[in-house]
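Quick one from the shared queue. A colleague (R.T.) flagged Transmembrane anterior posterior transformation 1 as missing a structural entry in our internal table.

Convert sequence to structure tokens.
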Amino acid sequence: DAWHRNILLTRGYFLEHNEAKFTERREKVYTCMRIPKELEKLMIFGFFLCMDAFLYVFTLLPLRVLLAVLRLLTLPCCGFRGTRLLQPAHVCDILKASILVLSFSMTHYLDYSMMYHLIRGQSIIKLYIIYNMLEVADRLFSSFGQDILDALYWTATEPKNRKRDSIGVIPHFIMAVFYVFFHTILIMIQASTLNVAFNSHNKSLLTIMMSSNFVEIKGSVFKKFGKNNLFQMSNSDIKERFTNHVLLLIVCLRNMEQFSWKPDYMWGLVPDVIMVIISEVAVDVVKHAFITKFNDISADVYSEYRASLAFDLVSSRQKNACTDYSDSVARRMGFIPLPVAVLLIRVLMNSVKVQGALSYTCVLLFYLGLVTLKLLNSIVLLGKSCVYVKRAKMEDKLFERPTPRTDLFPTPTTDYSCSSPSDSPSASPPETEEPRPPPAEDEEETQGPSQPKHRTLLDIDRFTLCGNRID
């Protein structure tokens, strides 16, 4: 018995006998410690990308439409040369402005105050369920809505010498107008629900709505994630954070209008706004930290995500660009600026009364300030994007003509892609990877018999099906 006690008190062990295991655990701890910094760098960059696309609707879009109209008016004087009256970019700008104006005019038939009091009369549990349903509906609307807008732009600018199989520009335009209108109603209900939560006496509804963000952790961290799935989730979080900031702005504008723009009440809203923003940031950090831990994903992957978003911006500034950057952001992140812009314009016009020459002068100065902010933001983003693209060694990809299923992104050391068979004799898989099954037969038919399917980050948008889920 004494011998046994002596062994228990003096027994030793050597951790270096299992050095690899403990080194891996230490690296996971370091990765979790790096996640907040790397994630927020991506979030801040993506936030300003969304803001750039959003400010475009209010600043450069009216100017570009004005230039397109002047081109049409001066066409008889200057003479018609070429096969097009307007360039495809001008046609898309006119369509965007027309959709914006028509959707805004249709929102005059909606009573924001009646909607607010109708929502306020519901029970807390019912409002919590409605708010969660609205988040799901917003994702569905964003997915199908961008397809509607892309179909409209292509139908309106498709070369005339091709055989067309579309239903025409006018039906597509009508669908786009009704989509933006209904999506605006959806966001208006979200803003009204958030406004009710802010104005509740005991803030119980606001607490419940914030707790729903933590429920998102349970539905995400205990599921298998790949690199592309995490990229989709990151884009979704960027879009959600920017949209929530706009919703908070709308709520503050509505409340300040009700209290005659008293500064004292504005300072009373600041703690609630800060609490919502902090809870959202905390949820994102915890969620991404555990996802990268459980799936053995390095924190360096967020630098690749940032370089992929920067590549979209730089490529859209080229002379032979195939899309506008605001549309690229909509496809990549699922953020469509038009419905949010319609609602914000409606709230601003109802909240701020413009009367007299001085008021119009202030509006003009405010517009010039927005244009200046947009230009400065674009210049800084473009400079940062060039740095990120050069750091990722992607400069050569800018001069390649885009082709479907082409490896546009440099292959990382560890592959987390959705489906990445490596049948090519020149490609050798990493030693740490297990062999993966070949692609399905229907996928091989779309790719051709000799071209394997390999999705990179530049091929993944917000609603690409990666594996068996869309995150």
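The first helix runs from residue 2 to 10.
The chain is about 70% helix and 0% strand.
Added to the table.
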